[in-house]
Amino acid sequence: MSEQKHRAAAQVALAHKALELRKRNEQRSPRQAYRQQRSRRQRTRHHRRPARLQDNGITEASDAESADDDQPDTLVPDAVVCRELGGISRMTLHRRTREDPDFPAQVQVAGRNYRFRSALEIYKRRLLDRAMRGQRQRLGSRCRESVEASR
């Protein structure tokens, strides 16, 4: 019986403590409450601003075919390039820039990186051609194997 009383007393004490904390949090300013919710590690870590995606209606509407219409080539932000290349990360984009000689060169404007739309479309077309060539080779070898197996 005394064990049940101890449990009940502990539950009451926890309920009182929770009520106290709620009251104290209500008295805090919204900024203080927000800081309280974040862990210490989150408060001390330096945060990088997330990449801002701009409305690039003109950029995204253009393509390599429209490049010969006497219109200037448009610049595509790196965030859009990452998305167009299958959602790759910025680090993968950086590696491709460094290691792949066919990858479009970056252009820096006001501290932000861009690529020319025409060069990007040419690169995507080359990637697609390489993938299709590999697929045809794999399918061709399978077809030959199946023909030889049926003999």
Q: Provide the β-strand percentage band.
A: 5-15%
How many domains would you count in the coordinates? 2
Physical arrangement of strands within the biggest beta sheet = 1-3-2
- SSE order, as H and E? HHHHEHHEEH
Percent range of helical residues: 55-70%
How many H/I helical runs? 7
Secondary structure tally: strands: 3
**Shape label:** elongated
Radius of gyration (CA) equals: 30 Å
The low-confidence runs, each spanning 5 or more residues with pLDDT under 50, are: 58-64
Structural class: mainly alpha
Mean pLDDT across residues: 77
- N-end to C-end Cα span: 86 Å
Largest sheet properties: 3 strands, antiparallel
Protein model, in words:
With 151 residues, the protein is mostly helical. The protein folds into two domains: 2-44; 57-150, no CATH class. It is 63% helix and 7% strand. It has a three-stranded antiparallel β-sheet with strand order 1-3-2. It starts with a helix and ends with a helix.
Main traits of this protein?
7% strand, 2 domains, 151 residues, mainly alpha, three-stranded antiparallel β-sheet, single chain
Quick rundown:
By secondary structure, the protein is mainly alpha-helical.
Write the layout of secondary structure elements.
Elements: H1 2-27, H2 30-37, H3 40-44, H4 57-61, E1 75-77, H5 78-84, H6 90-99, E2 107-109, E3 112-116, H7 117-150
